[in-house]
Amino acid sequence: MNVVSRGRPEVLFPLFAKLETLKGIGPKTAVHFAGLHIQTPRDLIFTLPTSGIDRSRKSSLRDAILPGVVTVEVEVGIHVPPTQKGRPYYVHVRDAELEFRLVFFHARGDYLQKQLPTGQRRLISGKVELFDAKAQIVHPDHMVPVSQAADIPEFEPIYPLTHGVTQKVMFRATRSALKQVSDYDEWIDASQRKKAGWPDFLTALKTAHAPGSMKEIAPTTPARERLAYDEMFAHQLTLSLARASVRAKPGIASIATGRLQSKVLAALPYRPTNAQTRAISEIAEDMGHATRMNRLLQGDVGAGKTLVALMALLTAVEAGGQGVMMAPTEILARQHMESLKPLADDAGIVLELLTGRDKGAERKAKLDALATGNIHVLVGTHAVFQKDVTFHDLRLAVVDEQHRFGVSQRMELGEKGEAVDVLVMTATPIPRSLALTQYGDMDVSVLDEKPPGRKPVATATVSTARMDEVVGKLRAAIQAGSQAYWVCPLVEESEVSDKTAAEERFKRLRAVLGEDAVGLVHGQMPPAEKDAAMAKFVDGKTSILVATTVIEVGVNVPNATIMVIERAEGFGLAQLHQLRGRVGRGEGASTCLLMFQEPLSETAKRRLNILRETEDGFRISEEDLAMRGAGDLIGTAQSGLPRFRIADLERQTALMAIAQSDARALLNDDPALTSKRGQAARVLLWLMEQDRAIRLLSVG
């Protein structure tokens, strides 16, 4: 392993040197490059052109489509300096058929006389416009003697820019950086490269930086696709190494006997779906191995994750251990407790709840019972992290709603037991490419069927102008015994907060529907008040619950059949889908009303239409990704999502899946990356700045 610990391979030194080592970049320009997140030649080679300009030569402007960029050979005519300050400087020129002029503002006459001597021939390239019916080029991009025609590329790549960095500077800098790249050994599987028709790394880089047309800038070109794959492959190698390091730590085999599980299954009023049965057996198999489980359970709203989680917890108990289930909020922890309690009673196990509210003797009694093994399964919030919480024999931790929990917290939880298996549940369907990118170190079980009895939810859109009509219909529905949620708009940085918006709506609905009919829940309420308002709604004491998005995840009231979302155009697709999932849980037919304020943007229209068309959370999440992009979808900062320079998560999902299976296959055959291809893969990891992977290798 010492190859890695010695540090970056020498062959990569030039790419990680300072920018000033490149031709034409001084300290000042190097500072400007930081605006593009470019600090080394390595960053430059992975900054590809985003578009291009056709500069192929024309014989005359007559052949050009105006306004547009034209490259043409001209004979320089007379110079007309400005007669007044602030006026432009003109140079008249003639091509093979037409006369036109070049226009310069704030020009230095002596410089232009030198560049464009009267009577000489020059190659000019720039944007031609018509002014007073006369053709002109203002500040040409290129003016060179005909002998230097090769200096103007036929198709000029256009790079992203920042203050202080021009196209010319960028072009020269990338050319200089490309000279620092060597011909590295191949890290991609030979059969994969052949099948995809990809060039080698160096050729791919040079080709991507010198496109011959707009077509060659597309991410599907072999050169660009290869470079995107390199980024994804390095990322998946890192995740696969992390997965291997978790598996390398000793675990404890928790073997299911079925003794407790069979009691629960016998008591269920329905049969589990095929997806649930599949997930239960995948988890049981993982837990039965002496390696640690690190699995993601992904299920759409109402797909029955709770039953799967309970079966996993029962496996731990059947094997003589304990389990813990953690939720991000107290409301959710209590809900889990309530939904698990009857099933735990069927199995005959002891289930307890621990939250920050437990104090004094009651808390001590719970902790003692936990330490002696008298509590089999603990449900709680992050309060279970506290130092004084010790388990007798913790085997499994189930974490609900991964994105509210950081990776470091997941690891902290793993330290509560000798070798804890981890099952992460998420009710947010994640597009495949993001699941592979964000959770590539985990194995994934997907619940893609709804249990019997889940009714479809009728979804309609209605303008806020019809508010009175909506309230009238709501009055009729609650008089007939229905319950409804009314979700208030998300309020962004204005005088009004989400809380104020919710309180206003609460007051108005109470005035119309009666004091006792309406409850209120928002994020800034003290937990006790929030729980009390929720409890009244659950017990049917209030008919309408006015809420902010605190009810987005997990709240379960089967009698609630109406969901009104005010200013729905302001919410994300996945969030709207989650909110809609709060209804349709009981016997009655359910409705979701998306209220919008006109005029609607095209994006908002598309978003609301998708929700009307489908209840498939996975399809909705793919659409959400396409519309918002990966960074926005999960908030790149807290997601730990890599910032790819070339790879496009929205459009290259299939590549990510190939990269994952290839990375896992390589590590399976060569866990220490010591073969010829393994050594090449190490170079790739250094090149892609995957320090985490390199640390895992050096430790290994």
Number of helices: 26
Anisotropy-based shape? globular
Low-confidence stretches: 1-5, 630-640
Given helix and strand content, the structural type is alpha/beta
Question: In order across it, which strands form the biggest sheet?
Answer: 12-13-11-14-15-10-16
Q: How many strands, which pairing sense, and closed or not: the largest β-sheet?
A: 7 strands, parallel
Distance between the termini: 7 Å
The total of beta strands comes to: 22
Mean pLDDT: 86
Q: What percent of residues adopt helix (DSSP H or I)?
A: 40-55%
Report the C-alpha radius of gyration, rounded.
Answer: 32 Å
User: How much beta, percentage-wise?
Assistant: 15-25%
Any chance you could write out the topology, listing elements then pairs?
Layout: H1 2-5, H2 27-33, H3 41-45, E1 51-54, E2 57-58, E3 68-80, E4 89-94, E5 99-104, H4 109-115, E6 121-131, E7 134-138, E8 142-145, E9 155-158, H5 167-178, H6 190-196, H7 201-209, H8 222-248, H9 259-267, H10 274-287, E10 294-299, H11 305-318, E11 322-326, H12 330-347, E12 351-354, H13 360-372, E13 377-380, E14 394-400, H14 407-414, E15 421-426, H15 432-438, E16 443-447, E17 457-463, H16 467-479, E18 483-487, H17 498-513, E19 518-521, H18 527-538, E20 544-547, E21 560-565, H19 573-580, E22 590-596, H20 602-613, H21 617-628, H22 630-634, H23 636-639, H24 653-669, H25 676-687, H26 691-699
Parallel strand pairs: 2-3, 5-7, 10-15, 10-16, 11-13, 11-14, 12-13, 14-15, 17-22, 18-20, 18-21, 19-20, 21-22
Antiparallel strand pairs: 1-9, 3-4, 3-6, 4-5, 6-7, 6-8
